[in-house]
Fold:
Amino acid sequence: MALVLIGFMGAGKSSAARLLALRLGVESCDADEEIERSLGEPIPSFWEREGEEAFRAREREVVLGLLNSRAPAVLALGGGAVTDPQIRERLRDHIPIYLEVDADEAWARVGASDRPLAKDREAFAALLAQRRPLYESVAGLRMLWARTASGGYPVFVGAGASSVAGELWCGGERCFAIGDESALAHHRERLRAALADKVELAAELAVPAGESSKTMAQAEALLRELARAGMRRDDTLVALGGGVVGDLAGFCAAIYQRGVSVVQVPTTLVAQVDAAYGGKTGVDLPEAKNYVGVFHQPLEVIADPDLLRTLPAEELSAGFAEVIKTALIAGGSLWQMLDELAPVARLHDEDMRGLGRAIERCARTKLAIVAADEYDKGLRASLNLGHTFAHALESATGYAAYRHGEAVAIGLLVALRLSERELGLSPEVRERVISQCERHGLPTSFEGPPAQALLEHVARDKKVSAGGRRNLVLLRAPGDVALRCEVNDDALIAAIEEVRRS
Ligand SMILES: NC(=O)c1ccc[n+]([C@@H]2O[C@H](COP(=O)([O-])OP(=O)(O)OC[C@H]3O[C@@H](n4cnc5c(N)ncnc54)[C@H](O)[C@@H]3O)[C@@H](O)[C@H]2O)c1
Structure:
């Protein structure tokens, strides 16, 4: 089976195919280059002389030839190839992967070129809108290319991605898995079957569920188990679990023999929309959360929304708070898309395509932020929207009263109320977030510690309280985050009290 990259012109299929093939250690092929070879001239001149129909006929011939023969392992198709029913039919024997791009970005890349269908900006955007459903129906999987200082990595998102993990595998010939005990119980067989014949799965180490596993002691126990099992530097670690196992296994990978590769296979919504990307790994200390760790980017991420079917409803709800947060940061189509998503309570009956699309958008947003600020010196702080108050609420209630995602939902509402006062954010944004929280079973108000006590916990946050002032992440509008907003205590208390009472 070949990995066949599809999508509109300007999506970056040709360069992604080269990069992916390099990572997989296989051959790549660009269908348009093959067509030009067969035509003996550039596509635009042939198209101009002979017309689109003649071009499509030649395209069909070449692409079917490539797919029928011993197909190259990674193949990039031209933007219109999937309009051909015979090509679509033949793609069923392969793994089509959709690279999405929006009209602005695509136009910026190919608008000035001599491509026959990139002459008029409006017609170009209309064609993209027309083809999008076709791309989505042909490919269940999507791919993003994460850009980092260390060269980048592929992120695969889509229902069924974990079942073809062997085909998508960028790691070594042998791997070791560190798995959340629940994730392993539910999905061990799927992982084994997907890797069988492709990669030797030498050992599976189970980690007890919950944040209490994110410790130095647990990391040491795992490192010793890996050493006893004979893991070498050229082996690959697989992290199968939520954010806890992703952070913990990522940390083990970063420090085992000074660093081995890790493939993240996130199994919770929190991990699929956020934690699995960006390379922050680490553990908690009894004194504070996430206090020990290193940056260690994954070799690849395989995010399969099908794995979320076994997730308890409360965990799905909690994960949705991160979806809402990311939509507020991203604005645009992700913010618009929120209303289209099924309530989490119904998610188990869905085909997961809608959720897969939202997960990909969230991953895209996070990866863009990480690409701009990999080591958390500035912009990456925007991902903290709503988290300052969430952490204060969690620690003031001894981490027992609220799930992290529930606290984030409340934290977002406090941040939005403050944003209205300080930055003139439209109240409609908060109203929409409230209705989203209600729709997905998230709280919109809270009981418990008085505002003054919560403020003390806010003050302990080093990032927030430098120099005795409160520096918070706020929002001017969806898609327009304001970093380091100085807020006085009275305003903060007022916002906290309003959300408490609402
Ligand atoms: N590295 C980052 O950038 C980053 C970002 C956000 C959060 N995090 C970290 O992520 C952690 C929270 O992650 P989380 O919310 O995924 O929690 P989690 O990893 O504890 O998982 C939540 C629960 O779901 C269970 N579970 C996991 N997958 C399952 C599945 N497929 N089916 C059934 N049950 C399953 C687990 O056993 C656990 O009980 C925190 O430690 C946080 O610090 C890290």
Observations:
- The CA atoms of residues 49 and 55 lie 10 Å apart.
